[in-house]
Amino acid sequence: MTARSIRDLAAAVRGRRIDLGMSQADLASRAGVSRKWIYEFEAGKSTAEFGLLLRVLDALGLALELAPSDDTRASGGGETVDLDALIDEHRGR
After folding, report:
1. Average pLDDT over residues 33-51
2. Which range of residues forms the domain containing residue 35?
3. In a domain, 1, yes or no
């Protein structure tokens, strides 16, 4: 899936949560966030904290991969990001 907005990510999280048969409260407990945070994120709240989003993705067994967009590939620009290192840094490893 290509996510280009917070709404895209929210839809993916909601879909995965439902596929796993989890309630918002179940996911919140597993990810260490409040049910309200899950509700607001799934509604597309644009100010979701990235660190909390990473915890939610981890709780759902989802991985976030970054890749250049088609526009960037065509122009030859763009940087690569080591997302594993970013996640490890967030987790304090």
Report:
1. 90
2. 6-91
3. no
